Amino acid sequence: MQKIKFGILGVSNHFLKRIVLPLQASRNALSYAIASRELPKAEEAALAFDIPVTSDDYEALIYAPDVDAIYIPLPNHMHADWTIKALKAGKPVLCEKPLAMNTAQAELMVETAQSTGTPLMEAFMYRFHPLWQHVHNLIRTRQIGSLTYIHSAFSYNNPDPSNIRNIEEYGGGALMDIGCYAISVPRFLSDKEPQRVLALADRHPDFHTDQHQSALMDFGSFRASFHVSTSSQPFQKVDIVGTGGAITVHIPFNTYVDTPATISIATPQGSREVSFPSADPYQLIFEAFADAVLNKTAMPLSLEDALNNMRVIDAIRKSDAEQAWAATGL
Q: Is 97 part of the annotated catalytic residue set?
């Protein structure tokens, strides 16, 4: 089977911890080249994981003729520039979430993808896990009636001042790193967009990033809320409540790849646990992206979806700054 040869920009901890092994295990994609501005880092990763090509030049890797597509796990503030360069070089791009620093950057990225005819997709891997596909189907077939509210909680404790998630100019903070998931979930499950948002952030005294971020999203027919934090006990859960039942996703985002995932469903007829065979959503997203590139079909996650998630992020920032409801324009 033909495999898409990925070039990876940057030797991030995220790539080494969560991506490199599932990418190598995928049926139609492989880690072919990796670049770091510190060449020894690229060489060390290449040796450890059998990556054939290394470089200390991102642009040279992008233009390497044997590289079919680019994966970008760089810090958020570098997404737009390197995505645009790769797209202009004719290389399909899978870019980590959130797509950009703001809507204006994201729009420029999307415009470049459209004008060059080169595929671009945001890497929201959770949507590819069978668990979330099942939950989406339960919602759209009204197994718990009509949605009334969704609440997402996601937190971790990262006190490292040198970590990119704690550097404001790099796009750090709770909203950008994990709040983007909590925004994506109700949009995905309902196939609707929030009309307005109300937000409240608490900033770290030293890092000045939003260490605690809460928001309420008004979808018209239902509400969604979330609390995310970079300074709390590691925790994650999504509760989905309808007029005729409720669903709890216990580990919604960082699902274990070697353990079955489980959701709880409660209806007037009774309660049940539903388990799903172990799966790696990162492997699944790379395979889905590679399938679309190889078959010249539409990306499984649309550019409109990526733009709209970014628009909600910007509205939440505006709401927090003005201490008032902010319209999303969606």
A: yes
Same domain, 75 and 169: no
Is 116 within the bounds of a domain?
yes
Domain count, the chain: 2
Give the percent of the chain with pLDDT over 70: 100
Neighbours of 241 (CB within 10 A): 19
Whether 70 contacts 9, CB under 8 Å = yes
Q: What is the pLDDT of residue 13?
A: 85
Q: Phi first, then psi: what are they for 14, rounded to 5°?
A: -60, -45
Give 147: exposed, middle or buried? Use CB within 10 Å, 0-12, 13-18, 19+: buried
* pLDDT, tens digit, 9 for 90 and up, residues 10-67: 998 888 889 999 999 999 999 999 999 999 999 999 999 999 999 999 999 999 999 9
Last residue of a domain, one of 120, 139, 164: 120
Q: Tell me the C-alpha distance between 45 and 21, whole Å.
A: 12
In sequence order, what are the beta bridge partners of 7? Answer: 33, 70
Q: Which of 120, 147, 176 is the last residue of a domain?
A: 120
CB 319 within 8 A of CB 139: no
Mean pLDDT of 181-188: 98
Is 292 in contact with 299 (CB distance < 8 Å)? yes
The mean pLDDT value of the chain amounts to: 97
The amino acid present at 304, given as its one-letter code, is E
Q: Are residues 114 and 174 in the same domain?
A: no
Kindly name the residue from 97, 192, 296, 318 that is annotated as catalytic.
Answer: 97
